[in-house]
Design brief:
Layout lengths: L1 E4 L2 H15 L11 H4 L5 E8 L5 E8 L8 E7 L7 H13 L4 E7 L3 H9 L3 E11 L5 E10 L2
């Protein structure tokens, strides 16, 4: 497996991965434009994890929303059919090495316990909790956990 900078040729496979992992668009309640969602304003870089056959196994984006804002790791998605946790850790490694500054932040849904426990094991610190700007299935209110990590 290897991590490479995301190119336009990776977008369709990443969207397909989103479909499989999040039910993207199946009920019309998810991202209206998944391609735009994968490249939020302030995107500094994006990476994909590829297997030996160039199949996309994961994706992540590094964003700086505005001058003076803390960089943010976002849009992390990993193929749930890939055994082990190597994909997520490799993607996190590349983000943590690429941050333009001493700190990086992220938000994760409270319900994604396995995910936020991984961040905590990697040294990310919980900085707050609050309501999500979006709803879950059946319009359920979600709580987001905010994390930060010193990387520089």
């Amino acid at each position: 497996m290897r991590i490479v900078g995301r190119t336009a040729s990776h977008l369709d496979p990443v969207v397909a991965l989103l479909w499989r992992t999040h039910g993207l668009g199946a009920d019309g309640s998810w991202a209206d434009d998944p391609y735009a969602w994968l490249s939020p304003d302030g995107t500094v870089a994006a990476w994909v994890a590829l297997d030996d056959d160039d199949r996309v196994l994961g994706h992540v984006v590094l964003v700086v929303a505005a001058a003076g804002r803390m960089p943010e790791m976002t849009r992390l998605v990993v193929d749930p059919d890939v055994p082990g946790a190597d994909v997520a850790d490799l993607l996190l490694d590349v983000v943590e090495r690429s941050v333009p500054g001493p700190h990086v932040r992220l938000d994760v849904a409270e319900e994604a316990r396995i995910t936020w426990e991984r961040y905590e094991r990697r040294g990310w610190r919980l900085t707050g909790r609050g309501p999500a700007e979006w709803c879950g299935p059946d319009d359920a209110a979600l709580t987001m956990r905010s994390y930060a990590k010193r990387v520089g």
